[in-house]
Automatic annotation (TrEMBL):
Protein name: ATP-dependent 6-phosphofructokinase
Organism: Ilyobacter polytropus (strain ATCC 51220 / DSM 2926 / LMG 16218 / CuHBu1)
Family matches, as Gene3D superfamilies: 3.40.50.450, Phosphofructokinase domain
Keywords assigned: Allosteric enzyme, ATP-binding, Cytoplasm, Glycolysis, Kinase, Magnesium, Metal-binding, Nucleotide-binding, Transferase
Named cofactor requirement(s): Mg(2+)
Taxon lineage: Bacteria, Fusobacteriati, Fusobacteriota, Fusobacteriia, Fusobacteriales
Sites where the protein binds ADP: 21-25, 155, 186-188, 212, 214-216
Length: 320
C-alpha cells in the first residue's frame, strides 16, 4: 500500500476531525501518500480529491464538525456511479480508503471494496451510537454532554413552573442518547424505539410521581418513537399536567468534541492506517470492553447491537 484516501460521510459528528488527524498524521509518518476527499462520496464522484499535508491536519482536533466536509450522495447506490467514483481513486493509484461515517456510509464502502478491489476501513462516526460492533461511536459522548447541558437548563424552568417537559433528542433507530441522557441527567421518563412504552404507562408514571409530591418531570423522547409534539398531544389526553416541548435538533450535532471522543477518534484513526499497512480491507473498527477491535464491515448492520433492557429498566426504577 502506497497511497490512501480519507473521507467523512453521512451526518457529521464531533470527533471526526480527531480521526482524520490521527489517520493523516500516522500515514504521513509511515511515508504513505495521503489524500483527502471533500464532501464524502459526492466529492469522490466529482473528483474533489487533494493531497493532504501535515498543515491540513493542524488545529482541527478540538473542532466539531468535519474539516473534510460531508454530504449525502444518494446516487452512490447506483453501481455505475460507484464505478466513476472508484476510477477517480484508481487514476491516482489510491488503493486504500478510510471511511468515517455511519452504517449508510459503511454500505457504500463495502460495495466499493467488493466491486472495485479498493481496501476500505470503516470508522464509526455518528452521534446516534446505532452501529453494531462497537460500544461507542465517535460523537456520541459529546452529544450526550450537549443534551445534559440542555436538561440542566430545562429542569430549572420545569421546576419553577411545575411542568412536564418533553425533550426530543436524536436517535432514529437507537435510543442510546435518550437512555444515557436520562441516566446521567436524572430523567423522569423515557421513550425509545427499542422499547414499547405506551403513553398510558408514561401518564401513569407521572400520576404516581404527583402522588409522591413530585411536581415536575423531564421526559426524554428519542426521535425514533415519533415527534415530541405528537407524544405531548397524546399525553395531555391522559394526564392532567402542563406539558411543554423542547426539540434540541441540530444543536446536538455541534460543539467542541469531548476528551473521550477525541481519544476514540485518535485511536480508531491510527488503527485504520495500521490495518491498511497490513493490506487488510473490508473491516470496521470498534471499541468493545475498552479494547479497539475489528469486525467485517457488514457486521455494522448485520451484527447484534448492545441489549438495552438492563439500562432501560434502571431508568424506569430511578424515574420513580
Ligand atoms: P450515515 O453514514 O450517517 O448512516 P447515510 O445513511 O445518509 O448516513 O449514508 C451516507 C452516504 O452513504 C449516502 O449519502 C450514500 O452516498 C452512501 N450510502 C448509504 N447507503 C448506501 C447503500 N445502500 N449503497 C451505497 N451507498 C450508500
Amino acid at each position: 500500500m502506497k497511497k490512501i484516501a480519507i473521507l467523512t460521510s453521512g451526518g457529521d459528528a464531533p470527533g471526526m476531525n480527531a480521526a482524520v488527524r490521527a489517520a493523516g498524521k500516522f500515514a504521513l509518518n509511515t511515508d504513505l501518500e495521503v489524500y483527502g476527499i471533500k464532501r464524502g462520496y459526492l466529492g469522490m464522484l466529482n473528483d474533489e480529491i487533494f493531497k493532504i499535508s501535515s498543515q491540513d491536519l493542524g488545529g482541527i482536533i478540538d473542532r466539531g464538525g468535519t474539516s473534510l466536509l460531508t454530504a449525502r450522495c444518494p446516487e452512490f447506490k447506483d453501481p455505475k456511479i460507484r464505478a466513476i467514483a472508484a476510477e477517480n481513486l484508481k487514476k491516482r493509484g489510491i488503493d486504500g480508503l478510510i471511511v468515517i461515517g455511519g452504517d449508510g456510509s459503511f454500505h457504500g464502502a463495502d460495495l466499493l471494496s467488493k466491486e472495485h478491489g479498493i481496501k476500505v476501513i470503516g470508522i464509526p462516526g455518528t452521534i446516534d451510537n446505532d452501529i453494531a460492533g462497537t460500544d461507542y461511536t465517535i460523537g456520541f459522548d459529546t452529544c450526550l454532554n450537549t443534551i445534559l447541558d440542555a436538561i440542566q437548563k430545562v429542569r430549572d424552568t420545569a421546576t419553577s413552573h411545575e411542568r412536564t417537559i418533553l425533550i426530543e433528542v436524536m436517535g432514529r433507530n437507537a435510543g442510546d442518547l435518550a437512555l444515557y441522557a436520562s441516566m446521567a441527567g436524572g430523567g423522569d421518563g423515557i421513550l425509545i424505539p427499542e422499547q414499547d412504552n405506551p403513553i398510558e404507562v408514561l401518564a401513569y408514571q407521572i400520576q404516581q410521581r404527583r402522588r409522591r409530591g413530585k411536581l415536575h418531570d423531564i421526559i426524554l423522547v428519542a426521535e425514533g418513537v415519533g415527534s415530541a409534539h405528537t407524544v405531548a398531544e397524546e399525553l395531555k389526553k391522559k394526564v392532567h399536567t402542563d406539558v411543554r416541548i423542547v426539540v434540541l435538533g441540530h444543536v446536538q450535532r455541534g460543539g467542541t468534541p469531548s476528551g473521550f471522543d477525541r481519544v476514540l477518534g485518535t485511536k480508531m484513526g491510527a488503527k485504520a492506517v495500521q490495518l491498511l499497512l497490513e493490506e487488510k480491507g473490508c473491516l470496521m473498527i470498534g471499541i468493545e470492553g475498552n479494547q479497539i477491535v475489528t469486525h467485517p464491515i457488514e457486521y455494522a448492520w448485520e451484527g447484534q447491537r448492545r441489549n438495552h433492557m438492563e439500562d432501560y429498566e434502571l431508568t424506569q426504577v430511578l424515574s420513580k
